[in-house]
Amino acid sequence: MKVLVVGGGGREHTLAWKLAQSAQVSKVYCAPGNAGTAGIATNLPISDNDLPALLRFARDNNIGLTVVGPEVPLVNGIVDEFEVAGLRIFGPNARAAILEGSKVFTKELLYKYDIPTAEYHRFTEASKALEFLDSNKTYPIVIKADGLAAGKGVLISLTKEEAQQGVREMMEDKVFGLAGDEIIIEEFMTGPELSMLCFVDSKTVVPMVSAKDYKRIGENDTGLNTGGMGAISPNPLYDNELEAHCLEHIIEPTLAGMRKEGRPFKGILYCGIMLTEAGPKVLEYNVRFGDPETQVILPRLKTDLLDIFEAVIDDTLADLEVKWDQSAAATVVLASQGYPEAYPKGLVISGLDQVKNSVVFHAGTAEKDEEVVTSGGRVLTITTRAATVADALTTSYQNADTIHFSGKTMRRDIGS
Ligand code: AMP
Ligand code: GLY
To answer: Quick check: CB of 290 below 6 Å from ligand 2?
Structure first.
């Protein structure tokens, strides 16, 4: 079977790498892919959000399965369009992808079905949000743009002034465009975080092994939020009891609620959870694999990923045993200087051929004059599988030190 992976980051390189290992897969295409996917797949000059071009390519080239990495095409209805055309595609349709596409929708759903999450207020007018802040006494407070904002639409404001500025930027200056037409202001929670990812078909949920993402740019969780600067699997805080609790109180009621709302979900459900003193609470839902969580989860998967994707599409997940390796995994992100704000591109990367005992998943790279150059904020993710997370990290950091590009930025405390 020929498969098409939509997207061009570290997550998509990992998906392509895993799918290429399947005996059933004859060829992998990536749209648009990166310098890393070029080594194992054929990159296509098609953007991950050019739905008509993706559809045309899949139809004209007899693609047996399309797998979508990023959220934007899912929220924009790529699954709906492929299904109408009779093409097989893995992921939620637009009605279900709203779980990530609208934070207001998700908060209302969580409250309606009694699923634990932070208290919140929603606003469509800046003046009303500012009035609310005037009367609010507790800070920090969390401000979120309703729509998609490339992971940047969440502000944690330490003071009223900061919160006011955040509201103005989102609602008046439109820094996130239409995504900020509506906002929510929610209670600030504290506690360790957990990324819980599940394979979901119309009837069955299969949780993946756990992971922990390191979201801030700076060590000791300081500085701006990023897409993720590293990840480990398993998450040391996770056990069978916590998994059962989250399934019963969070994941299953969410999926049942979506069915009741006429929005049945299938694909990957990624729940960001905070382990508060009052118990696990939902931070957010994503409707796709996490990046860089995928880089530590999929290397531990023993079952053929293609079989899992097919089972989800056919609603036969209950009949498949999803098996995991008992080893651990870690990944360290090498980012461009300045990320998550402005950063340079086109810098030559050296040392990739010196890497030993790790897999380098490319995130923001491109090929130029037969060299690999930087082309994104997160550039590379160095993944290692080993008996323990600590061993995996040691190897990932050794390899991270052998790779060079100007301004290479990483956190030295992944795993802490
Ligand atoms: P989200 O995109 O909603 O997951 O938010 C990004 C990050 O912001 C989360 O991983 C948390 O670290 C933080 N965050 C979001 N909502 C809250 C909240 N209500 N309280 C504390 N931290 C939060
Ligand atoms: N690592 C966080 C995300 O993929 O949303």
So the answer is: yes
